[in-house]
Specification:
- By secondary structure, this protein is of the alpha/beta class.
- The protein has one domain (9-241): 3-Layer(aba) Sandwich (Rossmann fold).
- 46% of the residues lie in helices and 15% in strands.
- It starts with 8 loop residues before the first strand and ends in a 7-residue tail after the last strand.
- The relative contact order is 0.15.
- The structure holds NADP nicotinamide-adenine-dinucleotide phosphate (NAP).
């Protein structure tokens, strides 16, 4: 079993904060060189400084085809080849009933959380297919498996990403590129800070989580490093739940 990533290169979208930053750090601890992306340059620069030698940053919005292409070109210039892509960038800017959701609100979440994964996967995946080697890991959510109230677009996007990964796993398995998902439960990050600050909502999440607490971002990283590594050489199209038991049935 080999979880050593020495000599490998990785791109982590949304690597400037939260789960993505913790994943970037863990990939580096396992020996990889890492390029993180995000939209806000200052946050990116701060994250690169925190990560230290072996880390680089590039500002790109995953919902823009032009910007994802620029990210891939930058990664190519930096590394030559990218071995590992972590599709982590995601948003959940609102909770609201679908009957009050307008098309632009729906589209915003689909553009980043679903189309963004498609764009990164197609652009980085094409280069991996040319080499016959690569690992792609999507950060999805319990929302792909259970209905979260007032979050139809988020649930649809995350379930869509998991379905896309299963399809690609079949298309690309014999061509050397593995595609898998890690589905977190509730993790203490900026994304959930508003919810966690509300006593009623926080205790409802804690109550519904068998482990009785939010995860730390670092607790998502082990599954990602495993799936990125040769220890997972026969794993594709899989989803690892890292959710404190939320989806255990
Ligand atoms: N926290 C949770 O409880 C939880 C649970 C299940 C799944 N997840 C998933 O885990 C992933 C990370 O979540 P998180 O909690 O770490 O969120 P976060 O703390 O809000 O961080 C999100 C990251 O994504 C970047 N980002 C957002 N929109 C982007 C875009 N359009 N293009 C490029 N980068 C973008 C952000 O940087 P900029 O803002 O600078 O662009 C930031 O680096 C998401 O896919 C989320 O859906 C989170």
């Amino acid at each position: 079993m080999n979880m050593d990533l020495a000599g490998k290169s990785a791109v982590v979208t949304g690597g400037s904060r939260g789960i993505g930053l913790a994943i970037a750090r863990a990939l580096m601890d396992a020996g990889a060189s890492v390029l993180i992306s995000g939209r806000n340059r200052k946050t990116l620069d701060d994250a690169v400084a925190q990560l230290g030698d072996g880390a680089a940053g590039f500002a790109a919005d995953v919902s823009s085809e032009v910007e994802v292409q620029a990210l891939a070109d930058h990664a190519g210039g930096l590394f030559g080849n990218v071995d590992i892509l972590i599709n982590n960038a995601g948003i959940n800017p609102w909770y609201k009933p679908t009957e009050n959701t307008d098309l632009a609100e729906w589209q915003q979440i689909i553009d980043v959380n679903l189309t963004g994964v498609f764009l990164c996967t197609r652009i980085f995946g094409s280069r991996m297919l040319e080499r016959g080697r690569g690992a792609i890991i999507n950060i999805t959510s319990v929302a792909a498996h259970t209905g979260l109230p007032r979050a139809a677009a988020y649930c649809a996007a995350k379930a869509g990403v998991e379905a896309m990964a299963r399809s690609l796993a079949k298309d690309w398995a014999a061509r050397g590129v593995r595609v898998n998902n890690v589905a977190p439960g509730y993790v203490a990050t900026d994304l959930t800070a508003g919810l966690a600050a509300n006593d009623k909502l926080r205790s409802s999440v804690e109550h519904r989580t068998p482990m009785g607490r939010f995860a730390a971002a670092e607790e998502m990283a082990g599954a990602v490093v495993y799936l990125a590594s040769d220890a997972a050489s026969y794993v594709t199209g899989a989803t690892i739940a890292v959710d404190g038991g939320w989806t255990a049935t």
